[in-house]
Write a structure and sequence with these properties.
The protein is 47% helix and 18% strand. It is α+β, with helices and mostly antiparallel strands. The longest helix has 21 residues. 30% of the residues are buried.
């Protein structure tokens, strides 16, 4: 029988990497969907996909239009749209726009578009996907658009970009396991840069900067199987029930016990999809007394059963 995580917390202080735990559980997966040299005029339209996408300027300047805003992007700039809203990318405002899928397919077939005339731009476009149906406050804590500029050639971010470009040049393709992993690394680097460079952050990132709320999150993440209560969490961080609830809701917009429940459901979803553990074992790991209890809670939370989740992905493999 799997040893309860709650037994291990007694052996030492909380050192849970909360952010890392969230990223691992969400299963962020990176990929590049477009890379090409471009001759003006050119323009692409990208539909709403509800997951992060980014554009990297390897040569020349261009524009990105999103949410009635037009952003000028220079060489060595990176634009990220964390919520994946519909937007356009072009060398000039007002250009005719081609669907990005059509442009990407043309590159894959070896007949890239926008090649007539002098090359003015080189662009890499990527995306970060995560497990469908799994939600966490981190996904709403980023602004709708991030513009990273003034990146130095020696910055680890740009070193990663150059590695991606070099690997793609050698492989003559946009997708490979190495390129995908490098794309994930780039996403984490950009996420870290956003957190470090911005004093005013909100939501989950603000919670990580709040010493006591961060400790509460660490307790929950280190031991989701523990039968946490407001009194137990408050005692660990020296806060009353009322103060803990108020501060937690002010930062994360949900009560502490709702976060506990949501996190248990996320962990259960992750283990059901990505492990061969039985429902009984998963129930023990995430704090449910029986598989039947977990099954009911899972159905209530996701509107489908653990068995239906596993069947869906077994059929897709």
């Amino acid at each position: 029988m799997i040893k309860k995580v709650s037994e291990r917390i007694k052996n030492g202080p909380v050192r849970s990497d909360v952010l890392g735990d969230v990223l691992d559980t969400l299963r962020f997966r990176g990929s590049v969907f477009f890379r090409s040299k471009l001759a003006a005029p050119w323009g692409m339209l990208l539909e709403d996909v509800q997951y992060p996408r980014f554009h990297i300027g390897l040569k020349g300047s261009f524009f990105v239009g999103a949410e009635n805003k037009t952003i000028s992007v220079k060489h060595m700039d990176i634009i990220m749209l964390p919520q994946g809203e519909a937007h356009w990318v072009a060398d000039q405002v007002g250009n005719t726009l081609t669907k990005s899928e059509q442009a990407a397919d043309a590159c894959e077939l070896g007949s890239p578009l926008f090649q007539q005339g002098k090359i003015t731009n080189k662009l890499i476009c990527g995306q970060i996907q995560y497990d469908e149906g799994v939600l966490h406050p981190i996904l709403d804590s980023l602004p709708s658009l991030l513009h990273f500029s003034d990146i130095k050639s020696t910055d680890p971010i740009w070193v990663t970009v150059m590695l991606i470009d070099t690997m793609m040049e050698k492989a003559h393709m946009v997708q490979s396991s190495i390129i995908d992993r490098l794309t994930e690394v780039l996403f984490l680097q950009l996420l870290n840069k956003y957190i470090c460079d911005n004093k005013e952050v909100s939501g989950f990132f603000a919670a990580l900067r709040n010493r006591r709320i961060h400790k509460v999150l660490g307790l929950i993440h280190k031991d989701p199987a523990c039968q946490w209560s407001l009194d137990m969490l408050g005692e660990q961080v020296g806060m009353s029930r009322a103060t803990l609830t108020r501060q937690f809701k002010n930062v994360l917009n949900i009560p502490p016990m709702t976060y506990v429940t949501n996190w248990r459901m996320m962990k259960a979803h992750h283990l059901l999809r990505h492990s061969s553990l039985s429902l009984e074992q998963i129930a023990e790991l995430v704090g449910f007394s029986t598989a039947r209890t977990l099954n009911k809670a899972f159905l209530r939370h996701y509107d489908y059963t653990p068995k239906e989740l596993r069947s869906k992905y077994e059929h897709n493999t």
